[in-house]
Design a protein that fits this description.
- Helix content is about 45%, strand content about 15%.
- Strands 9-8-7-10-11-14-13-12 form an 8-stranded mixed sheet, with helices on both faces.
- Strand 5, helix 7 and strand 6 form a beta-alpha-beta unit.
- It folds into 2 domains: about 220 residues, Rossmann fold, CATH 3.40.50; about 160 residues, Rossmann fold (3-Layer(aba) Sandwich).
- It has 17 helices and 15 strands.
- With about 400 residues, it is of the alpha/beta class.
- It binds 1,4-dihydronicotinamide adenine dinucleotide (NAI).
Length: about 400
């Protein structure tokens, strides 16, 4: 029995699913095999991912592969009610709705875990956290899972290092076909899509500050430049700071960047990257957005407590805060992942790659029965996804001759 906001929204959700399905050739190739082989028969899969149309196609696919599937959203703001309703009609259990309170968000996750999963698909470690917390009794039957994002893998590695991780997890984020495309091109495009649609301001000529020059930050900075912005990067890693400089961006500490920026995007996986001391230095009208996993990169608590007033923005995703004797600052999506909370997430072709890796990672866990730990996606799986994508694009590439293989092996 699913928990969705409004089942009557299903037709709008179905239209979104029908739009993305033909644009996901990697998932389609896996589907053809799943319908025949049913490799997930008998498995119970719990999913915590941002619940929008592409995620629904992954859930539908795993169900078609033979699994019982239950899905929730990995962020209280990112479930789309129409998609949830459409997915609930396909035989997948859905426990998700938009704008869940913290208590509801917790309850929805507990509902998903009630299927007593044998496999998990996690984002940011939401399911793993509970399977090592108040649902520990379920952990022993978990054969393993796949983790979507950088921050989740950081959490998993800490758990594994302390000897407490109870099952194997595959680090999907670290696969080349994931972070080189999802983090860079996906976050790059969808972050600007969300900022532009929620603010309707021009980006050309603006001073944009990107905090963090990792895979996501590179994409956010590159797309800002492409839109005509003057881009400043802040970093704590001197190697990445050099990289940003050589890529042609200004590099400086946030204390200085705070005075220059007109739009700020944090994407570090860290906390308090922008805080009270920066707010007081900012220009009037500065726009603050976060694309990192948790809503702690901009110190929203300090912003709310320090502000002398709050004003509504042009949409629910935009709220203005009046900083004492200083600027009016516009916070997007309450400091949560802007591209998902104020947009539709990554483009479909990108999520096709990421979700293809997720599905194949689950099969890997069934085939190999690994011990607890954090494992990479096998190189062959990365290559297979890359090949299918090239085929879908109609792009051929060269292949090594036998002589070339021998030559490369001779060193
Ligand atoms: P990454 O590890 O490649 O890069 C993070 C960068 O931030 C590093 O270069 C690090 O030195 C820097 N950094 C850390 N603390 C900083 C600080 N105080 N000031 C400035 N720079 C700082 O990580 P990646 O893959 O770029 O991911 C970043 C975050 O975005 C993670 O939380 C990840 O889970 C999330 N993410 C979000 C997506 C989205 O759809 N919005 C998609 C994929 C990842």
């Amino acid at each position: 029995m699913s928990t969705v906001r409004n089942q009557a929204l299903a037709s709008s959700g179905r239209a979104k699913l029908d739009w993305v399905r033909p644009r996901m050739p990697v998932l389609e190739a896996i589907r053809q095999r799943y319908l025949e082989d049913r490799p997930l028969a008998g498995q119970r899969v719990a999913i915590s991912l941002h619940l929008e149309a592409k995620t629904a196609i992954l859930a539908e696919l795993l169900h078609q592969g033979g699994a019982t599937v239950s899905v929730t959203s990995s962020n209280p703001l990112t479930a789309q009610d129409d998609v949830a309703a459409a997915l609930a009609e396909t035989g997948v259990e859905v426990h998700a709705y938009a704008e869940a309170t913290p208590e509801e968000f917790e309850w929805l996750h507990q509902q998903v875990l009630d299927i007593e999963p044998t496999l998990i698909v996690d984002d940011g470690g939401e399911l793993t956290q509970r399977l090592h917390g108040n649902r520990q009794s379920l952990a022993d039957q978990v054969l393993g899972g796949a983790e979507e994002t950088t921050t989740g893998i950081t959490r998993l590695k800490a758990l594994a290092a302390s000897g407490n991780l109870r099952y194997p997890m595959i680090a999907v984020n670290d696969a080349d076909m994931k972070h080189l495309f999802d983090n860079r091109y996906g976050t790059g495009q969808s972050t600007w899509d969300a900022i532009m649609r929620s603010t309707n301001v021009v980006i050309a000529g603006k001073s944009v500050v990107v905090a963090g020059y990792g895979w996501c930050g590179k994409g956010v900075a590159e797309r800002a430049r492409g839109l005509g912005a003057r881009v400043i990067v802040t970093e704590v890693n001197p190697v990445r700071a050099n990289e940003a400089w050589m890529d042609g961006y200004q590099v400086m500490p946030m204390d200085r960047a705070a005075e220059l920026g007109e739009i700020f995007v944090t994407v570090t996986g860290n906390r308090d990257v922008i805080g009270a001391r920066h707010f007081s230095r900012m220009k009037d009208g500065a726009i603050l957005a976060n694309a990192g996993h948790f809503d702690v990169e901009i110190d929203v608590k300090a912003l709310k407590e320090g502000a002398v007033g709050q004003v509504p923005g042009r949409s629910a995703a935009v709220v203005g805060y009046l900083w004492p004797n200083g600027p009016r600052l516009w916070l997007l999506a309450e400091g949560r992942l802007v591209n998902l909370a104020a947009g539709d997430g990554h483009p479909v072709e990108i999520m096709d790659l990421t979700f293809g890796l997720q599905a194949l990672a689950l099969e890997q866990l069934l085939q190999q029965r690994m011990s607890p730990g954090v494992y990479p996606v096998p190189v062959e799986v990365d290559r297979w996804v890359a090949d299918i994508r090239l085929q879908a694009l109609g792009i051929g590439i060269d292949h090594l001759s036998a002589d070339q293989v021998r030559y490369l092996a001779s060193f």
